[in-house]
Amino acid sequence: MTAQKEEFVGSNDEEYLERYGFSDKIEYKYKTAKGLSEDIVREISRIKEEPEWMLEKRLTAYKVFEQKPTPSWGADLSKIDFNDIFYYMRPTDKKGSTWDSVPEDIKRTFDKLGIPEAEKKFFAGAEAQYDSEVVYHNIREDLQKQGVIFTDTDTAVKSYPELMKKYFGTVIPPSDNKFAALNTAVWSGGSFIYIPKGIKVTIPLQAYFRINSEKAGQFERTLIIADEGSEVTYIEGCTAPIYMSSSLHSAVVELVAHKDAHIRYVTIQNWSKNVYNLVTQRAFAYENAYVEWIDGNIGSKINMKYPSVYLKGRGARGEVLSIAVAGEHQVQDSGGKILHLAPDTTSKIISKSVSKGSGVASYRGLIYVGKDASNTKSTVRCDALLMDDNAKTNTYPYMEVYRDDATITHEATVGKIGDEELFYLMSRGISEEDALTMIVLGFIEPLTKALPMEYSLELKRLIKLDTSNSVA
User: Fold this and answer.
1) Number of independent structural domains in the chain
2) Does any domain span residue 406?
3) In a domain, 410, yes or no
4) Do 288 and 154 belong to one domain?
5) Which range has highest mean pLDDT (68-72, 245-249, 311-315, 453-457)?
6) Of the four, 12, 58, 268, 286, which is 20 to 30 A from 229 by CA?
7) For 121, phi and psi rounded to 5 degrees?
8) Selection from 408, 279, 404, 394 nearest residue 338 by Cα
9) Residues 434, 437, 443, 449, CA torsion sign
10) Domain span holding position 432
């Protein structure tokens, strides 16, 4: 490894590279030319043999993308070169429904990441995406018999066109922002889930996304619909190898929770530090529906992600639990947005961030209470932990309230790991590195408690890798 790459990755390179940062040499079945144009958009649609209505959506979105400027209000995105990216890379012509049917070179990657074993033990269904395409998909037979649909979004376009036409792009239209438009123009892969009325999926569904190639873009599109009285938990994980050039991940996630439905969406984002992670996530929650976003952000070069919930029906609830760890050469700009658009709605945003070295962690959040949202209650809490003198944190809360009867609370704290805490733990025989890890893990406990055991253990392992050797 070069000295430049060692500095770029940070400490604990060997263990990180062994588990997550490796890359595989594979021969792609198809790859578009580098750069973005209308011809590339048409080519992606042609390769996928899509219906005309989806091509029209792509082309409309591409025009929006060209017209909208790159956002300048958050992290610096000026170095993204949209013409230096591969927008579609197909690793295989076949999608496996059994693990043995996945091509060996791709299967080895997910074997290293522990995906098959986790699926066997903890999940009701699993999906694995490698660059632009879903390469593996499986769902338990008993769920299929109950009418649960869990497939990749490309398949849903052809197999469930009425559902796709009804919901695709209605929660997040291309006009929302430049990167939502980009995703709609070049999207590939992602998950499509439909839970019928009254069905409660008690074991999580899972997807894992892997960028393998240098200068690659990944633009998965996820749509989850929970019909009346249904329930589902969806968990996604993300990794990429470490390269000196940058990659772009720009996903769009749309959730629809109908009356009395419950959706829990969990992300553990561990992209390598050469990835721009620019994601738009939004949910519509109708009468008495409940939507939870549990958002863990550890990796990426620049991360901008603000899961949101539009509370559109009486009694709807929305929660965002956001954790961000900003290490060397990282900008974590995250938070959440809740819009109260109906009476008797409640919301909660909890944001916790950890910064070290040159890392910058920012909370950016919105609470909106509309004129029709009587008897609204909302709580926002932002806690930041600084691990050394150079670490930085910012808080940008925004509240727009049009009701006098709304109850809104906001708390924010910033603290530094103190010498007394370290001394107390070290005086009991704990090493400085382990003492640091214990303090950080105690700080982020709300997230780890909300995760299934396997993901909780993995998150703790990642945080230990990312925060050790961090005392200035």
Assistant:
1) 2
2) no
3) no
4) yes
5) 311-315
6) 268
7) -90, -35
8) 408
9) negative
10) 419-472
